[in-house]
Amino acid sequence: MANGVGEGCAQLSAVADAVLYEGYLLYPYRRSSAKNRVRWQFGVLLPRNWVERDGPVTPGLSGSADSWYQRTECLLRVRRPDAVVRVRVRYLQLQYKQVEAAGADGVHRPVESLRTADGVTRLSFEEAVPRETEVAVPLAELLRGGRSFAVGAPAGAEYEPLPAGAGRIVRRRREVRGGTTVEAEPLGAGLYRLRVRTENTADAAGPEAPRSAVLGQALLATHTLLAGDGAEFVSLIDPPAGFAEQARGCRNAFTFPVLGGPAPEPAGGDGATGALLLSAPIILPDHPQVAPESPGDLHDAAEIDEILTLRTMLLTDEEKAEARATDPRAARILDRVDTMPREVFARLHGAIRSLAPAPRPAAGRPAWWQEGGDDGLCPSTDTVLVAGVPVGGGSRVRLCPRGRGADAQDMFLAGRTARVAAVFHDVDGSVRLAVTVDDDPAAELHDWYGRFHYFRPDEVAPLDRAECPAPAAAPAPLPDRLQRRPQT
Q1: Composition of the chain by helix, strand, coil, percent to 5
Q2: What does the alpha-carbon distance between residue 227 and residue 476 come to, in Å, rounded to a whole number?
Q3: d(CA 463, CA 386)
Q4: pLDDT score of 351
Q5: Beta-bridge partners for 229
Q6: CA distances for 377 relative to 172, 381, 435, angstroms
Q7: Which band of pLDDT confidence, cut at 50, 70 and 90, is reported for residue 446?
Q8: Residue 274 — very low, low, confident or very high, per pLDDT cuts 50/70/90?
Q9: Quick one: CA torsion of 288, 190, 476, 45, rounded to 10 degrees?
Q10: What are phi and psi of 402, to 5 degrees?
Q11: Is the pTM of this model over 0.85?
C-alpha cells in the first residue's frame, strides 16, 4: 500500500500474510491427515443465497459459522482537510488441483494420485491463490456518500504436463465476485466513523449443495488493511480519554480491527492511535507482530514454532513425501526445516526482549523469592475478600472483566456466572481466581482436568451482589461473531 502498509510497514504486512494463510494447511501437512480434511475456517465469505438457505443469519446467534459479508467500523481522527484513506481488501481464491493420468487412447482421466517415472508422486488437492484489491479515497468523497468498488477474480485453468507423458496437473478456479463499500460519518471535532463492508455478490448455483461445493465461489481468509494519509485510527481496544463512548458505538461483524505497525515509543497511557489498521477475522491485540526469531510461516499461529519444527523433523521419509506431494507450501516448510542452520533453530527456544537485569538479593535468588512464602497456602480452601465477601473454592460469582486492558477472550464471558475452584497466589503477591463457567457443557470435564479461566478478584462480583462494578473505561464491544478454528 503506497505510503502506508506495503512500503512503510513490513511488520503489518507479515502479520497480514500470517492471517491470510492461518490454518491453510496444518501439521503434519499431509492430505491424509484428518485436520486437513476440513479447511478454510477463517474469514470465509460465501454466496448469500447459500448462507441464508435456512433463513437470514443473525450475527451473534447460533447458525452458520460462515457469512456472506464482513463489516468493519472504526474511528478516524483527521489531521488535515485533504486526508485520504487507503483500503486494501485481501483474500484467497480456491484453486482445485486435479491430477489426470494419460490413457492409451490419449484421453486424460482424473485420479487421486499418480506416481511418475521420476519417482515423484502427485496428489489431487485444494490450493489457493492470493488476491487483493486496493483503492485510495479522499475523506471528502467518503462523506459525500462513499465509494464502492468490485473485488473478485475471474475463472481460469492452467495445465502442467507431467514427465514422460504420464499425464498432467490441471488447476481450475471458479469466478469469485464481491464488492466493497467505504463510507464515513462525522462524529465531531475532527473525529469520524469509518465503515468498510465487503460482500460476496455471487449466487450459488445450488443453495442446497454442501459447503465444499460452493467454496470455489468464496472469498477465503478475507481481511482488510487500512492506512490514513493525514489521518490516524483510534484504538477500539484502548481508546484515548474521551473516545470510549464513540468506540463502543462501532459495530464490527465477522472481523476485529486493531492498530497495525510498530507500537509507539513510549506507549501512551491515555489510549492509542496509529496510521495503520488491520481488520481480521481473528482476534489480535493492537500492534501485532510476528516474532523476529520465526524463520517462516507454519500456517498455525496458535502453535509454537519450536514445537512444530521439532515435530516436522520427526516425520518419516514416507510422511514427508506425502506432504511434499500435497501442496507446494508444505514442501517449502519441509525444505526450510530440513536445511535450518543450528543457530536459527536455537533462536526458536526463546528470546530475551529486555536486557535490564532483574534485581537479585545477596543470596543470589530472584527478588520475588521468599523462603517458605507458600507455607500455609491451600488453593482449594483459601479465600479472598471481594466487596467485603470472602470468596473461595465453591463460591459462585459473576464475571466482570475489567474494561481497559482485559484479555479479548475474557470479554466473551462478561456477565456470565461461574463457580470458583481455587484461589492462587502468584509469586509477585497478586491473586487469581480459577473458575469454571456455569453454562459451559464441559465445565465438569475442565474441573477434572484442572483447566480453568483465571480472573483477578476485582474482575468478579459475588452473586449476592446485584451487578458488576462499572469499569473505569469500557472497551468497544466485541464483533458480533468471530470465526474460530475447532480444536484439533
Answers
A1: 20, 35, 50
A2: 21
A3: 11
A4: 79
A5: 84
A6: 64, 8, 18
A7: confident
A8: confident
A9: -70
A10: -65, 155
A11: no
